[in-house]
Structure formats: C-alpha cells, structure tokens
Amino acid sequence: MTENFLINPAKKVEPTEVVQVPDANKSKLPRDATVLLDAVLEHRGWDKRAGQVQMVQAISEAIWNKNPNAPVDISTNAPVGTGKSLAYILAALASGKRVLVATSTKSLQDQLIKEELPKLKEDLKAIYDYDLTYGMMKGKSNYPCLATTRAMLNAGDADDLALFDDIEQ
After folding, report:
1. Where does the chain show beta strands of DSSP type E?
2. Which of 81, 99, 119, 96 is nearest to 1 (CA)?
3. Is the distance from CB of 15 to CB of 94 less than 8 angstroms?
4. In whole angstroms, what separates CA 140 from the centre of its chain?
5. How many Cβ atoms are within 10 Å of 18's Cβ, its own excluded?
6. Which residues contact 92 (CB under 8 A, 6 or more apart)?
7. Using the 8-state DSSP alphabet, how is residue 24 labeled?
8. pTM score, two decimals?
9. pLDDT tens digit string along 73-111?
10. Distance between CA atoms of 93 and 127, rounded to whole angstroms?
C-alpha cells in the first residue's frame, strides 16, 4: 500500500511555539500538528499510523512555508484508513489559520460534519479546553461569484463576513 501525497514543500519548518488560534477561545493549541495528532490519538486510545503522521507533517510544512497572507491550496490522496481527515484538520488547526475544506463527495462532507468534527470537538475540549467551531456550506448559493462576494462585503453583515475576517480589502 503506497501513499501518494500531492504536497512537496520547499523546505522543512519545525513549528514548536504555541499559538492563540484567532477565535473566541481563551485556550491555546500547540502549533506543532504532530503534537496535536499525538494528543488526540492518545485521548481516543488509537495507534499512530505512519501514513497519517507523514501526511500531517507534509500538510503542516506546506502551510508553514506559504506566505502568511496567501491562500494555501493542498490536495491529498492516500489509501482508505490512512486517517486523512484527522491529519488535514489538525494540520490546519495548528496553523492558527481559518480553513475551508472542500470535499470531493457529499458522503465525505456528511462524514466530516456528522462524525469527524463533532468527535474532534469533544477531543479538543477534553484535552486543551478548546472549543472548535465549524460550519458547512452546501448548495450552489454557497459558491459566491465575485459580484456576490463584493455585495456581501459591502453589506457588512457580521455573520456573513466571518469567513473573511482575516482578509484585507
């Protein structure tokens, strides 16, 4: 069984500091995604998977090596059972950045929203007293064109603008 990661960061970065993730949480998460992964796996009583560790490291390095103000596009491809969802979500959380995850199927989207994220929310609350927040965008009305996005930004509705909090005009 071979893993195929479509990530090739230019250099290795070793994030070791702790970051306040930009939201209402008062608790801190480790900035090293492998530390987060180890803590969640231990909390669940699960064993480490080599492919999952490799993936969380590769995704973290890709995020860390990107210009802080630029979006990061990452694609992953690995066998069933590798632990992809947990790997990319924890790598994203450790970055301290707001993240948008696009799934290739509705069933994966449902799995993330109904199973993976609620369980991870429980884990992070128990381990770090961190309150993970997430939401789902679904349907063609949730894919704004440039005109719709500009109209939303000009309207100034705080709930609608939450995704854009870290983006400068």
Report:
1. 4-6, 18-19, 29-30, 75-77
2. 81
3. yes
4. 23
5. 13
6. 59, 63, 99, 101
7. S
8. 0.66
9. 777 778 888 888 999 899 989 988 777 787 778 888 889
10. 14
